[in-house]
Automatic annotation (TrEMBL):
Chief site of localization: plastid
UniProt-annotated location(s): Plastid, Chloroplast stroma
Taxon lineage: Eukaryota, Viridiplantae, Streptophyta, Embryophyta, Tracheophyta
Keywords of the record: Amino-acid biosynthesis, Aromatic amino acid biosynthesis, Chloroplast, Lyase, Phenylalanine biosynthesis, Plastid, Transit peptide
Pathway(s) annotated for this protein in UniProt: Amino-acid biosynthesis; L-phenylalanine biosynthesis; L-phenylalanine from L-arogenate: step 1/1
Top-level taxon: Eukaryota
Name of the protein: Arogenate dehydratase
Protein's organism: Gossypium schwendimanii
EC category: lyase
UniProt-annotated stretches for the region Disordered: 103-123
Bias kind Pro residues: ranges: 110-120
């Protein structure tokens, strides 16, 4: 066993085991043998010897007799049988002791073990493996089977064990309580905008963003078998899905009311469970297969370039790298409100760091700031938290210097994660996700 020095700021430890020496080809015991014994005190019955010295002498005598027979006989087959007889004779006197016979050459020198291949050097990926608890990675998502979040979990972690959660916060807690290894949650959509609930939960919980995945969204209008569009009086789905299909549903000429539910696949399940023949759901084609619904209209999103961005969350951050494009997410605030926002953004602009997103959310602890003015009265201003994504890795010096400057202008700064960007090719949605 080799000892590996402690690596600072790592939550994963590696144990490197040396493989056992082995021979490439089977070896015939046609030469003298040596007994390798353990260091504890052992008594040898059957008249071979009552002490270690007697045992060594007996082995030496037996070995010399076989060696002399090998010298007198030129037949290799007899040599092999004599050596096999020796091994049988010596092993016949062992009870619970393993002698581990080691073959020697004619000069009584131990044969060198088979040369081991050089040990593979550690790479950066070895230092941050996925913390699995079994054969599969367990990934939590919000919704029921058939949800787009489940498809995103499968894209982010193929062959994972997807764990459905009824709420976004339950998915956060599943990772914190070691029920799941990862959580895959949506943060923004190209049509519906940001999912503000998850931005608030990112600040409330201590999970780290370790990756992102972008999933094309392909909505369908689903109903029970035999139901026609003109019979519908209601359409249910997630609020984001309803907003992404608002214009198309209107163009279909449907005189329906729109009601929001927890998730898209949950809407399909609700219709199938309650046998609602006047209600349709906006969900994926896979949800129709799972819950026995028909597709009344396919691809009803208002824009074919409909993409939802998901982030992968874990208990521990990953090690930033510079060998591929990285993205870093931060959140900051200042006691003086938005007056320092230009200074903060200038820290990135001066270092040629591109911002991919900036999101403001009201400060949960201090939503209102009062400014007293004796002449005008009392003015009220909103306090904001700012979420920023920028294209740089925390392993880069320019990103470190930018955050050091940002910290001078802010009263609160937190790095939510530095993670690889999703660089997979993308094309407009034209089929199942």
């Amino acid at each position: 066993m080799q000892a590996i020095s402690h690596v600072q700021n790592l939550n994963s430890y590696l144990i490197i085991c040396r493989s056992k020496p082995r021979f490439d080809k089977p070896v015939r015991l046609a030469v003298p043998v040596r007994c390798v014994y353990h260091s504890d005190s052992v008594q040898f019955p059957n008249g071979v010897g009552s002490s270690r010295v007697d045992w060594q002498s007996s082995c030496a005598i037996l070995s010399s007799k076989v060696f002399s027979q090998d010298q007198d006989s030129g037949d290799k087959s007899n040599t092999s049988s004599a050596s096999d007889h020796l091994a049988a004779a010596v092993n016949g006197h062992k009870t619970s002791l393993d002698l581990n016979l080691v073959p020697l050459d004619k000069k009584n020198k131990p044969q060198p073990p088979a040369k081991q291949p050089p040990q593979k050097p550690l790479t950066i990926t070895d230092l941050c493996p996925a913390p699995t608890h079994g054969a599969q990675l367990r990934v939590a998502y919000q919704g029921v089977p058939g949800a787009y979040s489940e498809a995103a979990a499968g894209k982010a972690y193929p062959n994972c064990e997807a764990i459905p959660c009824d709420q976004f916060e339950v998915a956060f807690q599943a990772v914190e309580l070691w029920i799941a290894d990862r959580a895959v949650l949506p943060v923004e959509n190209s049509l519906g905008g940001s999912i503000h609930r998850n931005y608030d939960l990112l600040l409330r919980h201590r999970l780290h963003i370790v990756g992102e995945v972008q999933l094309p969204v392909h909505h369908c209008l689903l109903a029970l078998p035999g139901v026609r569009k003109e019979y519908l009086t209601r359409v249910i789905s997630h609020p984001q899905a309803l907003s992404q299909c608002e214009n198309t549903v209107t163009k279909l000429g449907l005189n329906v009311t729109r009601e929001a539910v927890d998730d898209t696949a949950g809407a399909a399940e609700y219709i199938a469970t309650n046998n609602l023949r006047d209600t349709a759901a906006i969900a994926s084609a896979r949800a129709a297969e799972l819950y026995g619904l028909n597709v009344l209209a396919d691809g009803i999103q208002d824009d074919s370039s409909n993409v939802t961005r998901f982030v992968m969350l874990a208990r521990d951050p990953i090690i930033p790298r510079t060998d591929r494009p990285f993205k870093t997410s931060i959140v900051f605030a200042h006691e003086e409100g938005t007056s320092v926002l230009f200074k903060v953004l200038s820290a990135f602009a001066f270092r040629n760091i591109s911002l991919t997103k900036i999101e403001s959310r009201p400060h949960r602890n201090r939503p209102i700031r009062l400014v007293d003015d004796a002449n005008v009265g009392t003015a009220k201003h909103f306090e904001y938290m700012f979420y920023v994504d920028f294209e740089a890795s925390m392993a880069e010096v320019r990103a470190q210097n930018a955050l050091a400057e940002v910290q001078e202008f802010t009263s609160f700064l937190r790095v939510l994660g530095s993670y690889p960007m999703d660089m997979t090719p993308w094309c407009p949605s034209s089929g199942n996700p």
